[in-house]
Amino acid sequence: MASTKFSGADLRNDLLEVILEDSILEFNPMAEKILTPVKVRKRDGHIPVKFSGNSGVRIFEDDLLRGEKGAYKRIFTTLGDDTFITKVRGIEMGIDQMEDEDYDDYIDNEIEAATDTRKELLIHREKRGADLLFSTTTFSGADDTQAVAALWTDPASKLRTDVNAAEKKIKKKCGLKKRKLSLVITDYIVDFILLNTEFIEAVKYVDPVEKLSDDQKHGYMRQYFNVKEVLIVDAIYNGSPLGKDGKDDAEFKDIWDRQYALLCYINVSGKWGPGVGASPVYTKNTNGKDVQVEDYDMKENDYHWIRSKECRGEKVFKKYGCLLTGVATAA
């Protein structure tokens, strides 16, 4: 059913609170961690981009000595201009009031509908983020991409050499080194990293790989690559919605393309600032919430509708990232 605006829609913060307290997701959303949410006062607008006249130039101590007549060294900063845009997205689920009466002893259809519609919003967020970040359209050209020397599925591949090459490109663009950077990889590639000859050689005197816990695997991969953190993306979606083309079978697909990995700097401040990206969130349309849940009745067909909606966008700053390509063959 196409969604239209109903003046009679009511806020359902009670439903929102219930579903926020419940662990409703079968995946760990990562796009929102990488593209940090930033609250904005307008649905679209301009953002300042800072350029320093002496950015990246080492200023030695003797340059900062007080000069004659109280003169100090001066540097200048100019602001560039960039833009952002947010869009309203939402989805509704109908509850047949006759069926609701029949099954209300077994299931709370309002909570189920609020849960399912919010989940759809979050899956779409993850998909939009993945499509932006694991993309040779977003990251294009020699400065922003690094082709790996060999597939990471090959036990003999030199994983660190590839990541080090990506680090050099980021360092050249913004002066950041690996210990400040995050490495984003798919869950598909993790098993191959653990079977990599060079990786096994690096950890074999500590613990056998097959005996490592998940936390230990994370820790050793972080140490092996010498990065701030290793983020594993594993989200899936139903590529064949129920009822499509007469089919009722789901066809689950990976949201993140296993051909890629991303080395990047993540902004965790919740404000506009240095980082590979951000998600501007306009909360005026959602009553100050990240997601707004509403309901309304359509008496002509005895349906009660639950709606979840959001107003947000995605912004990538490729200066703070380098996309590793050819990591694995396409699914």
- SS-based structural class? alpha+beta
Largest sheet: 5 strands, mixed
Ends apart, CA distance between termini: 33 Å
Extract low-pLDDT stretches. 1-7, 53-57
Average pLDDT value?
A: 84
Tell me what portion of residues adopts beta-strand conformation. 25-35%
**Number of DSSP strand runs:** 16
Going across the major beta sheet, what is the strand order? 6-16-11-7-8
How much helix is in the residues? 25-40%
Gyration radius, rounded? 24 Å
Number of helices, counting only DSSP H or I runs of 4 residues or more: 8
Oligomeric state as shown: single chain
- What coarse outline follows from CA principal-axis ratios? globular
Order of helices and strands: EHHEEEEHHEHEHHHEEEEEEEEE
Concise overview:
The chain is built from eight helices and 16 strands.
Which terms summarize this structure?
four-stranded antiparallel beta sheet; 8 helices; 16 strands; globular
Write up this protein.
The chain is an alpha+beta fold. Helix content is 27%, strand content 27%. The protein has 8 helices and 16 strands. The strands form 5 sheets. It has a 5-stranded mixed β-sheet with strand order 6-16-11-7-8. It has a 4-stranded antiparallel β-sheet with strand order 1-13-14-5. Strand 13 (292-298) and strand 14 form a beta hairpin. It starts with 9 loop residues before the first strand and ends in a 6-residue tail after the last strand. Residues 1-7 and 53-57 have low confidence and may be disordered.
